[in-house]
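Encode chain A's predicted structure.
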Amino acid sequence: GFTPLIEARQLALKLNVKKVWIKDEAQNPTGSFKDRGLSVAVSLAKELGIKKVAIPSAGNAGGSLSAYAARAGMEAHVFMPRDTPRANQVEAQKYGARLTLVDGLINDCGRLIAERKEAEGWFDVSTLKEPYRVEGKKTMGLEIAEQLDWKLPEVIIYPTGGGTGLIGMWKGFSELEEIGWIGSQRPRMVSVQAEGCAPIVRAYNEGKDKAEPWLNARTIASGLRVPQAVADFLMLRVIRESKGTALSVSDQEMVAEIDRVGRLEGLFFCPEGGAGVAALRGLKQRGWIKPNETVLIFNT
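Encoded structure for chain A:
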């Protein structure tokens, strides 16, 4: 937590936007924003006397859970699609997790955990299958408010897989208003997904309250390869309540933005972070984001 908020001056200049802030979540202990939710989930699980935890993961969540479970002296079981990047697989194993590779997607991994958890005695920490991860992800919203002196940006662009962060930030903003630390002004929340896996974007465009599963999900951004999110209805509600939007970008656009941000700002983005920049570029070109607005994006 309390990752740096970096002003991307050159990127803002190139895109003709008042300010662009980058919340660099890569500086969390295991290198991703997954640490926020999973540190809380494991801490509460330990307090409740739980000995074994299990998670489906398309990438960083597996390593994060494994690290915190190791610190807590708990047994971790991680289920990953077989084609998950090798680095993510090795990370989980090096932290002592028991890794199971699955021929399928993250939803198939989650299904296997659900089928076995009762017999195995696992606590299922799948996205929004327990109440604690969203509380950890909420801290992104609290930090953004504090780091910007309690004045929120006009737009927040969030790369969306399971969507816990989107929901958590929105919850955090409401709680800050309740205690009088911020006013009623809210950012327009933008969900960006990959063209090869965009169930939330499709549901938003079709005016639906829930998203249908995305078939044959494919993208280089493993964190965005979530064909069906448990909290789809909550994400869609946040987007609409905030007067935000949802859009998809191609893998090629993500890769191009990684190169541009590296050259302009000296930051090395993950593909999911590149998706956020591609969304910013596209929304600015459409006129949805105005030149006098402040935008916040994430390197997740």
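The chain has a mean pLDDT of 97.
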